[in-house]
């Protein structure tokens, strides 16, 4: 049976769940899973999975009329509540890389077995190092060098490439260039980055070198949305790995790669399944 | 403002959330948090936290009339749905121990700073080893030796002690005696045990010895309800600890104690806050 | 500077470290890292990394004469001590799979970027499902079906394939067939398997189904050497992942795959870097 | 049999292990465990556990003459190598607290069952909140208020108290006052603090509030030596705990307390067992 997804996001007030579930009940729609959250500052978030219920004896099962459901919900709910019904199930993405292959390799393998919940339309890189890997999987690779280009020229060239694909999301899979606010503005809340530290520790360059020098006993990785402040966007997922004094910065980088690629994949799964809301620079994951 | 808790457990059917939230809405009750779960075999579980809403201008805020709320819920919900409104906030417990102090010490410290969400009425032990520790905290200690007593006589003596206290829950904080089905039957789903392994690995005696001999690289602990089959009741919480070849069985036992006491405390917090449902020998934690 | 590795394994007795380090010292060899372990039953294990020291002024640096070093070590050490100097740095392996791609994909990506510390000579499978993946990486794929063959005939066919490659190790990367003692005997302590549970919990088939039914709160994966008893060989590495009541057996299998592939890779890194000794069905990792 | 411990720390050079083990061998001393580390900048660290070997037939076992062993080691080793033989097995400590009880409670329970590898001589606090807890365990409690005192006067008063006890180590078990460089200078590398964040994230006050506001998915705690820069001393141990969007800063503080007390205890065990060396603001744990 088809599973439908309703996403809702707005100021909290009494009766919100009651009103929404009433519309679904009157349409013979069966809630399979319902997750809500009210933030301390009074914002309400809900993600509801439902399916068309079995018809009573002698009657016919209604098909879902999404527009009618949305209209009724809008009538019953106050202004200012955002509703999305059945967002696109499989997202279109473009992956950005520089020279490191581990996150890209992970995404390509998952994609080639249809485990990514997304279609990789293309890979963009400021180096051609990873072209051979990408070509193994028959995916377009766009080498857009940043050399002899201003940051703005480089991003303009990338944007021309992206215009071909119209991706839903950009995935920075170890893309080692800082994006301008203008560029980020085009893809607000639609750029996911993997940072190779347990943010907010070790913002910026060479986090494993910083971790080694600080003598930490645990390293980590952070997947987050990119906003205008480097490494300060809403965090989606984090994970960690124990280290000890024997590990050099290079060892940490090697060990960290396994954490990075898994954290990035887990974060993308949440994002592509429409489980992630953003509020006040924090993610709510339902 | 007072927080109220409604617990619900019954066969799933369309409209359950709608009906419950409708009763709350009509009484001007504001849902703070709502968690639901439907099991694959069609059982519905819900835990709702709500408070009395602010009155509209010119009106008076209603006080909660719990019996009326329950009556209305029962009218609107089908037979077979179990409802509990505002279960006792602080549980009464008796703690069972043998000779090891670490879990008991943890519970006593938490209790003495009112962090346990429960009152420790007494400690029962088949040895008097831990009497000095218990006496530091001014709690009754009942030494009920099992020597020269059949299992039934021993349990009868314990039951006489428990009759004084009428506890809501028994906590087996490293109590190294197997309880009979009869005894367990008196406290169905109300006995919590900590087992010193990552169940179902290493059921029974000397799990750290078994873990050492099997050469595992991770050990663990499991808090679970006790039913008639030793170590096979519903699992509430588990956690683990890395080990390596240098660790002897004794080292593992030492390291494991830290895991045991934390896992037991976390499980008790969930149980005493009425977050744990039991279904088909599995726990649902809302 | 070239790094040399000396491995030593034998009955413990006073002076072992002294005698070995003496030989190295007299040859102007500089210990970079030295790890030892003495088991409770008196077996000594040592792994020493060293390099040729800088020559004193006016002298020439000696090149290493491995045979001479070994001869001197054998003279100074008692009988029964096993010595290996500079084991083959990059192992030759054949990977066995059935239908699941995640561990194989992980190994192929690592191999294609020279991160595996091994050469994948070929992939063997009892299905042809994964042939397209393997062919992307230009590696021979041998489809050896078990249909219409006795277990012995099937293994004989596999052994004929292996005879071409003479691998140092076999890696069972989710190979879902039990191997006979005869087959295992040909590759004693040279077969590494990934089992999709936290052994010894859930030995045998469908461990995620078993985990779901037991209601565990943590699942795991185990990389181990294969010996004659299924899932009972020496454990090399384990890791775990938290789950809760919402996760079905299928969800657990999906989440578990990320743990499996990372644990297998970490175990192989240890094995291929000659860090793993085996003693009494337990691994010592230096 | 008595276990002896030798600690060594100095510039690396060829033959160090050989020379040390030679002295032990000639005295019929049997190495039980030996751990070494050479830092990238060429500092050598070694921790050796040994016992007196069994005498050959017809001879008598030598007792250990520590001074002679040390003399011979000093003769054979170059200048600048620091040697310690059999450091004091049980350390004397004074515990500092403010108002939070969880770390102190943990230490008191461990101490009362002789599991701390240290004697708690006294507890010092700038509040009298925890006096009742400490008095349960019969340990002196010194309430040294900071009110109406300059920082220097307050520390002078504390130092007068410490003068009575001459502790080996000070343990800051949630002591919420910053110590002056002068004070710290009196106890160089002998003050252990628990910080309630995963350092270097969230240095300073209210780390759980900071963690909540940043929206991290993992919180942690750090045990470290105190030096002159707040929260920047050598890290001994760290651990973490997953959180999600539902957890308020208060929830995080509650959950974090379990991590804090275990991390502090584990760090103290390492320090009190003389397993921790300090080099370049990093700890080496052998």
From TrEMBL, chains A, B, C, D:
HAMAP family: PurU. This is Formyltetrahydrofolate deformylase. Keywords: Hydrolase, One-carbon metabolism, Purine biosynthesis. It catalyses: (6R)-10-formyltetrahydrofolate + H2O = (6S)-5,6,7,8-tetrahydrofolate + formate + H(+). The active site is at residue 231. One of its GO terms (biological process) is 'de novo' IMP biosynthetic process. The keyword Zinc does not apply. SUPFAM superfamilies: ACT-like, Formyltransferase. Belongs to the PurU family. It comes from Fibrella aestuarina BUZ 2. The keyword Hydrolase applies. It is an enzyme of class 3 (hydrolase). Its EC number is 3.5.1.10. Catalyzes the hydrolysis of 10-formyltetrahydrofolate (formyl-FH4) to formate and tetrahydrofolate (FH4). Pathway: Purine metabolism; IMP biosynthesis via de novo pathway; formate from 10-formyl-5,6,7,8-tetrahydrofolate: step 1/1. Residues 5-83 form the ACT domain. GO terms for molecular function: formyltetrahydrofolate deformylase activity. The lineage of its organism: Bacteria, Pseudomonadati, Bacteroidota, Cytophagia, Cytophagales. InterPro entries: ACT-like_dom_sf (IPR045865), ACT_dom (IPR002912), Formyl_transf_N (IPR002376), Formyl_transf_N_sf (IPR036477), PurU (IPR004810), PurU_ACT (IPR044074). Pfam families: ACT, Formyl_trans_N.
């Amino acid at each position: 049976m088809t599973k439908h997804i309703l996403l809702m996001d707005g100021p909290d007030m009494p009766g919100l769940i009651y009103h929404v579930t009433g519309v679904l009940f009157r349409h013979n729609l069966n809630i399979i899973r319902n997750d809500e959250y009210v933030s301390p500052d009074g914002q309400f978030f809900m993600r509801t999975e439902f399916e068309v219920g079995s018809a009573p004896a002698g009657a016919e099962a209604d098909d879902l009329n999404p527009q009618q459901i949305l209209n009724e919900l809008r009538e019953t709910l106050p202004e200012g509540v955002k509703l999305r019904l059945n967002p696109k199930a499989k997202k279109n993405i473009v992956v950005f890389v520089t020279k490191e292959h581990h996150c890209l390799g992970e995404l390509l393998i998952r994609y080639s077995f249809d485990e990514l919940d997304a279609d990789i339309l293309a890979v963009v890189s400021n180096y051609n190092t990873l072209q051979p890997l990408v070509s193994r999987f028959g995916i377009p690779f766009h080498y857009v060098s940043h050399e002899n280009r201003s940051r703005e020229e480089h991003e303009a060239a990338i944007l021309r490439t992206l215009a071909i694909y119209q991706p839903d999301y950009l995935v920075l899979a170890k893309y080692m260039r800082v994006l301008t606010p203008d560029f980020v503005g085009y893809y607000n809340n639609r750029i996911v980055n993997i940072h190779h530290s347990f943010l907010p520790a070790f913002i910026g360059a060479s986090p494993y070198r910083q971790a080694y020098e600080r003598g930490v006993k645990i390293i980590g990785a952070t997947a987050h949305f990119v906003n205008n402040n480097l490494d300060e966007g809403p965090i989606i997922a984090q994970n960690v790995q124990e280290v000890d004094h024997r590990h050099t910065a290079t060892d940490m980088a090697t060990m960290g790669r396994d954490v990075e690629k898994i954290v990035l994949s887990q974060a993308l799964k949440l994002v592509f399944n429409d489980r992630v809301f953003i509020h006040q620079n924090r993610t709510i994951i339902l």
